[in-house]
Design brief:
globular; single chain; disordered N terminus
Length: about 160
């Protein structure tokens, strides 16, 4: 498990590393996760929650396999949370609960980061990737507030797992 690795030192390199990790998440397929599903299925197998922060961006990623990661555009993060039961459970719950929100999202083939002060979700299904963006300060009143809370719960579990010895 990796957390707050100071490399790379160059801010541009940290941003490039972040964007590569984020892109890898979008390229993940059910086959990569050893999951057999119909290619036409709309059942989620992964989710990304992008956060716009004053100092950059952060992404929480979860897959139905129980794997989860958190990384930031300023460097650091947590990769490989699947080795911790609490992380696996939170990741699976985050992905499984996303299904009921697909009707509030739109299919997309572009994956921009959220605008300043916003949160953007991407739900990965075998057939499509769906997205939704909203203002973060108002998320407690938003129709996706439970999904937002589950993303933060997963982040809490990931960070707690890094503290375990």
């Amino acid at each position: 498990m990796y957390q707050d690795n100071p490399q790379p030192k160059n801010p541009q390199s940290r941003l490039e590393a972040y964007l590569k990790l984020r892109q890898l998440a979008f390229k993940t397929t059910p086959a990569n996760l050893d999951i057999t599903v119909s290619p036409d299925s709309q059942e989620p197998f992964g989710i990304l929650m992008d956060l716009s922060l004053p100092q950059g961006n952060a992404t929480i990623v979860a897959f139905i396999s129980g794997d989860a990661s958190f990384y930031t555009s300023t460097g650091g993060g947590v990769i490989g949370g699947i080795g911790h039961e609490n992380v696996r459970n939170a990741a699976r719950k985050f992905v499984n609960s996303s299904y009921k929100y697909l009707d509030k999202m739109i299919p997309t083939i572009a994956y921009p980061l959220p605008e300043s002060g916003k949160v953007r979700f991407y739900i990965l299904t075998p057939k499509n990737i769906f997205t939704y963006e909203a203002d973060e300060p108002d998320f407690h009143k938003n129709e996706l507030s439970l999904l937002y809370a589950q993303g933060h719960h997963l982040l809490t579990e990931l960070l707690a797992a890094t503290q375990q010895k």
